[in-house]
Amino acid sequence: MAKVLIMMADYGHDPTETAVPYSAFKEAGFDVSFATEQGNRPQCDARMLQGITQRLLGAARPVIRQYEAMAASEEWQRPLAWSAPAFTLDVFDLVFLPGGHEKSVRQVIDSAAVHALLVDFFPKTRKPGTKAVGAVCHGVMVLSEAKDGQGRSVLHGCTTTTLPARFEQLAFWGTRAFLGDYYKTYGASSGDVEDFVRKELADAAHFKGSLLPAPFVVEDENFNYISARFPGDAQLMSEKLVSLVRGLRPGKGEAA
């Protein structure tokens, strides 16, 4: 049975970018675990789950039902602790990093412990390796900020996408009058996620983006790494990650 880890902050991740992949992994028969810094039960961004922000900008009703099922699961209620001294990613086939723009997600984006884990794990996804990584939106920034002793990101040399700067700016300026800098994870004057990711790549051509509403994902040629932009990509990304993991573990990707 393939083992999947979803690494999270205690609060603030996007519910669509978390619940849709989780549901796809479970449906595929994968063994899914969550991990937060101290093993606290996570909670996704409440603004994306309720109130006017949910109705205008947040998770669709079917996704909310998926989120509720996920939040009731044993693995959600009892996550692992990614800061524990003995914690390792090596026991997992896939490490998945959901996004989310709420400021609390900086707990995982900025974590030295998470960076060290990814610096060790990500090279093991080099093809034809049997490990894989998936990331969407701000989850890609967790990878771009994970740097080795020479200051080189694990994404240096990879092809990736992330939240387009134009999308981020549209959300920020379109809601600033009533939500302030809610859509800027590092504050109103900070750079866009796309800027943070682009500057860590070996070549400008390694960034792939799309401003079309149709689902869009990027699969790297040299690493078992799949990235996506925003909640609208979550279902396609999940399907491709399931297919990728099954291909890495022929005959072992489903529950017995």
TrEMBL record:
InterPro entries, per database record: Class_I_gatase-like, ThiJ-like
Protein name, as recorded: ThiJ/PfpI family protein
Record organism: Tolypocladium capitatum
